[in-house]
Design brief:
Elements: E1 2-4, H1 6-14, H2 22-34, H3 40-46, E2 51-52, E3 57-62, E4 67-74, E5 79-87, H4 88-92
Parallel strand pairs: 1-5
Antiparallel strand pairs: 2-3, 3-4, 4-5
Length: about 100
């Protein structure tokens, strides 16, 4: 899969308060780049804790569920767009289906 906006993840883990997110996010990027997802069940096979939402949105737990990553996935184009990365508290303030 091609990840759009890896720079967003880098910016996030570069912040002093989120340095512990670097290794889990790097691992997520490594796994996702090697993936070839054609449907939501393919994601669930790799990330059992992922939440599949409507409109091609998926919520991933990062760093032992300390952080949440929301992505929009375009299966045919094999692209994944990072729409949000933040703490659980930050995540509770957004609508993952529209962000």
């Amino acid at each position: 899969m091609r990840i759009i906006a890896v720079s967003t993840l880098r910016d996030f883990w570069s912040e002093a308060s989120h340095r512990d997110a670097e290794q889990p996010l790097r691992a997520w990027v490594h796994v996702v780049r090697a993936a070839d997802w054609a449907k939501p069940t393919d994601i669930k096979e790799m990330f059992r804790s992922a939440d599949i939402l409507s409109a091609g949105r998926v919520v991933f737990d990062i760093g032992g569920n300390k952080y949440r990553l929301v992505a929009a996935i375009h299966y045919q184009a094999r692209r994944i767009y990072v729409r949000f990365i933040g703490t659980h508290r930050d995540y509770d303030r957004i609508d993952a289906r529209t962000v």
